[in-house]
Structure formats: structure tokens, C-alpha cells
Specification:
Length: 286
């Protein structure tokens, strides 16, 4: 009965929710055409060493710029794509584009370590996800040092044996696997023991306030400690100012990513940045 009442309310009285559903529906329809219409592109955000400022690698971040409207955030359209097989077409496109770009930069002789790609939960459920990934790398003559993977904790928690052995295989062959938004998922520390990962990315919600919130600071310190004790690389994401950077360096995080250094940029901008630098070095301002 309660359920019925709830539904009645939603359907007949909640105009806002109704509008939101219509909006999502339209967006999904347009997203369905986005690949054919060449409306998707990748931006790249550098990750730099917290101590030398050297660019170590890039994170590929998907952008959707519809012809007939304003850009839509991946935080909005990825969850929509995940409701159907659309996520598979989009993920294929992302991996192909990241590989193509990595190979191009390699051929151009640009100093560059790696491009990391975000994998979503639904994407991992595809039985041939790893095979496709590896085929794509092979097609472009790329290896474990060229393309890395970012997964959220929840993806790992939900992972079945097929996914785990696929990740283990990649890990054994030297691929870098990072846990994204670390500390925000529904996870226990137990999984750090079993899952084949190489890096933790501390979520930016902790980084944002750590310089004046003791609890955020404590969580960050604990994450760096446990990460290093497990032999993992620790990355701080969302670094926006020098106070945050200062603290991150004190804590001995390895890498930082954030607007304080670089925003996500188009491929051309990255090329200018990398070719203007001596062996990929940028001096720290502080
Ligand atoms: P994420 O993987 O955690 O990516 C980091 C997000 O933080 C990016 O947002 C980036 O632009 C933003 N960011 C970086 N530095 C700063 C900073 O200093 N301050 C602030 N306020 N934000 C910063 P973006 O590009 O909007 O992406 C949002 C999320 O969408 C990503 O979070 C990721 O979960 C998802 N996403 C993006 N591209 C892809 C993709 O190709 N595939 C999948 N499955 N998900 C993607
Ligand atoms: Mg990410
Ligand atoms: Mg992240
Ligand atoms: Mg995030």
C-alpha cells in the first residue's frame, strides 16, 4: 500500500521528478547519436609528482559537446549510458581514442608516461571487456606502460571471479590499476588484501578540506600510510591551492592531480604543453 501511494505521488504530483525523467530520456536519445555525430572527445588532465612537478601521466576524461546544445558533464551522462548497452559503445570509443592518441604521441616523440582510462561498473560486466582492451592496445602497438585503468571501489566490491582474474592478469603483466575516489565507496579494507591494484587515488572530498578539517586530514594520513605499507602509489585528486599541496607533500603522497597544476585539456593543448617542456619537467611554483 505504501508503495502504491509512493508511486501515485511520484507519477501525479511530482512535476519536478517528471521533468527530470523527460530530460534524462531526451539526453539518452541524443547521446545515442553522439558517437556518429563526432560529439565525443577526450580531455586529458596531467598527474604530476608532488615533489618535482614532473608530469608523470595523464587521465583521460570524456567530454560530450552536442552540436545543438551546451556541453554535458560525464558525471551526468555516464550514469545514463550505464542504464543500457550504450555504455559499451561509449567505452569502446574511449579506449580506442585513448590508444590512438597515445600511439600518436609516442610517434611524435613526446615525453609521456601513460594515459589512464576510467572503467565503469557496467562496462566490467561485459564478458569480453579485457579481451577488447588488449586487442585495442595490440592494434596500436601499445603495452602495459602506455595505458592504465581507474576503477572505483564499488566496481571491485561487485567484481566476480571473471573480473578479478582479468584484472589479476593485467596486473601480473605490469598494467597500472588505480582505485578511484578512494574512501567514498562502500568498502572494507579487506579488499585491498585481495585485489590486484597498484595505486590509490584519494577522493577530492578529503583533499578539499584536509588543511582545516582534522577528520579529513586523519583519513588522508591513514590512506597514505596504508597505501605505502601495501606498496601502492598514492595520488591526491582535486588539488586546488598551495595549502592543500603543502599538506599533501608533508603527508608524502606521491602524485597530485588538480586545477592547481592543470585542468583537463584538449589534445592540442597537451601537445603544446609537452613539447614546450624539457623532458616533461615543469618547475614547482612553491
Ligand atoms: P574522476 O575519474 O574521479 O575524475 C576526476 C574529476 O575531477 C574530473 O571531472 C576532473 O575534471 C575533476 N577535477 C580534477 N581536478 C579538479 C580540481 O582541482 N577541482 C575540482 N573541483 N575538480 C577537479 P569530470 O571530467 O567532470 O569527470 C567526472 C567523472 O566522470 C569522473 O570522475 C569519472 O568518474 C567519470 N568519467 C569521466 N570520463 C569517463 C570515461 O571515459 N569513462 C567512464 N566510465 N567514466 C568517466
Ligand atoms: Mg578517474
Ligand atoms: Mg577520481
Ligand atoms: Mg572523483
Amino acid at each position: 500500500r505504501a508503495k502504491l501511494d509512493g508511486r501515485g505521488q511520484v507519477l501525479f504530483f511530482n512535476q519536478k521528478l517528471h521533468d527530470e525523467l523527460v530530460h534524462q530520456h531526451r539526453l539518452t536519445d541524443r547521446l545515442d547519436q553522439a558517437i556518429e555525430n563526432h560529439e565525443l572527445l577526450l580531455h586529458y588532465q596531467p598527474q604530476v609528482s608532488a615533489y618535482t612537478g614532473r608530469i608523470e601521466n595523464l587521465e583521460a576524461l570524456l567530454r560530450w559537446e552536442p552540436r545543438d546544445g551546451p556541453p554535458v558533464s560525464p558525471a551526468e551522462f555516464i550514469p545514463l549510458a550505464e542504464r543500457s548497452d550504450l555504455i559499451h559503445r561509449i567505452s569502446d570509443w574511449v579506449i580506442e581514442e585513448a590508444c590512438r592518441q597515445r600511439a600518436r604521441w609516442r610517434d611524435a616523440g613526446l615525453a609521456l608516461e601513460r594515459i589512464d582510462v576510467n572503467f565503469s561498473g557496467r562496462q566490467m560486466n561485459r564478458p569480453d571487456v579485457f579481451q577488447r582492451f588488449e586487442e585495442c592496445l595490440q592494434r596500436h602497438g601499445l603495452g602495459p606502460r602506455d595505458i592504465g585503468i581507474e576503477l572505483t571501489e564499488n566496481v571491485l566490491i561487485d567484481a566476480n571471479e571473471r573480473i578479478l582474474s582479468g584484472l589479476r592478469r593485467l596486473h601480473d603483466r605490469g598494467f597500472r590499476i588505480a582505485i578511484d575516489d578512494f574512501g567514498t565507496g562502500y568498502s572494507s579494507l579487506n579488499y585491498l588484501k585481495h585485489f590486484p591494484v597498484t595505486a590509490l587515488k584519494i577522493d577530492r572530498s578529503f583533499v578539499r578540506d584536509a588543511h582545516n578539517q582534522p577528520k579529513d586530514r586523519a583519513i588522508m594520513e591513514a590512506t597514505v600510510f596504508i597505501g605505502h605499507r601495501l606498496g601502492l602509489e598514492v595520488v591526491a585528486e582535486g588539488v586546488e591551492n598551495s595549502e592543500q599541496l603543502e599538506l599533501i607533500r608533508e603527508m608524502r603522497c606521491d602524485l597530485v592531480q588538480g586545477f592547481y597544476f592543470f585542468r583537463p585539456m584538449g589534445a592540442n593543448e597537451i601537445e603544446r604543453l609537452l613539447s614546450g617542456m624539457v623532458a616533461g619537467t615543469k618547475t614547482l611554483s612553491s
